[in-house]
Amino acid sequence: MQVIELIIDEKDSQSGIDAVSVVESPAIEENFIALSKHEVELKEVNAEKRILMGAALIPNKKIYRVNAKKEEYYIYFSEDTVRQAMELFFKNGNQSNATYEHKDAVKGMTVVESWLIEDEVHDKSKKYGFSLPKGTWMISMKVDNDEVWNDVKAGKVKGFSIEGYFADKLEMSLEQKKKQDLIEQLRDLLKLESYTDYPEAAKENAKIAIRYAEENGWGDCLTATGKARANQLANGEAISEETIARMAAFERHRQNSDKELGDGCGRLAWLAWGGDEGVAWAQRKLEQIRNK
Predict the structure, then answer these.
(1) Of 1, 169, 173, 189, which one has the greatest count of Cβ atoms within 10 A?
(2) 132 lies in the same domain as 216
(3) Is 162 found in the same domain as 201?
């Protein structure tokens, strides 16, 4: 039978424990974790003050589940998740949120004490007859609700059970793997569709444009894209088919290419986009790519 670890998804604001329920029999709801059927019964710590003690979550304890498709499996929580769940429970101010059998919200139920068992031998829970593993989340709840307290005395309430949303670690891992695989596929695709075989003369033309701009400034010449293209070519970086197409289309500016640097923007822009050699290469390369 499959064993699934449940974790808290820090990116999901709903993740965590919303309430503590007092229960007698199991309650199973799809996606919503409602755990009961605890082997650990409640202990009446103080009858006069109506305080009950018990385990809210036990780490690494396999808990039997059945989903909507009647598929059987086990879930469990690690020590880290138990600690995180406990901290979020109080951080979100849920200590007075309580239900009865995971159905009806009840008032007059408050978690007044909470701790993690760190020493299985000397933890104070041993004083009340508990024998629980390290990392167990223990709580004490004050019951000011008369109806619930009467059910406690009648033996109808036998344990605590948590209510909350948790993420399936396996599903999250698979989802993350899918995303990573997609990223790798995109990287491979970009790599396959990128090219660096433009001539050295195109690189030198771009470098001439950059050196001129460093000494004299770009002025009103070139857009941010043109400046980025000059740096890309000068550094010998890979360029995509789309970029090659734009270089090829720069042929329309050839009429300004014979001017001197400093005489308008024509010559500077032409060199930044690879000059004669760069534009000619782009035209040949684009035809080659599209005729594959």
Answers:
(1) 169
(2) no
(3) no
27 pLDDT tier (thresholds 50, 70, 90): very low
pLDDT (average), residues 89-116 = 90
Cα–Cα distance, 273 to 267 (Å, whole number): 10
User: Could you tell me the pLDDT band of residue 1, with boundaries at 50, 70 and 90?
Assistant: confident
**CA 137, 129, 35: angle at the middle one, nearest 5?**
40
Whether 163 and 198 map to the same domain: the answer is: no
CA 150 to chain centre: 45
Distance CA 22, CA 52 (A): 10
Tell me how many domains the chain contains: 2
In this predicted structure, the answer to whether residue 236 has a pLDDT above a threshold of 60 is yes
Asked if residue 163 lies in contact with residue 33, where contact means CB atoms within 8 angstroms, the answer is: yes
Return all residues near 290 (Cβ < 8 A) that are at least 6 apart.
none
Domain enclosing residue 214, as ranges: 194-290
C-beta separation of 97 from 18 below 8 A = yes
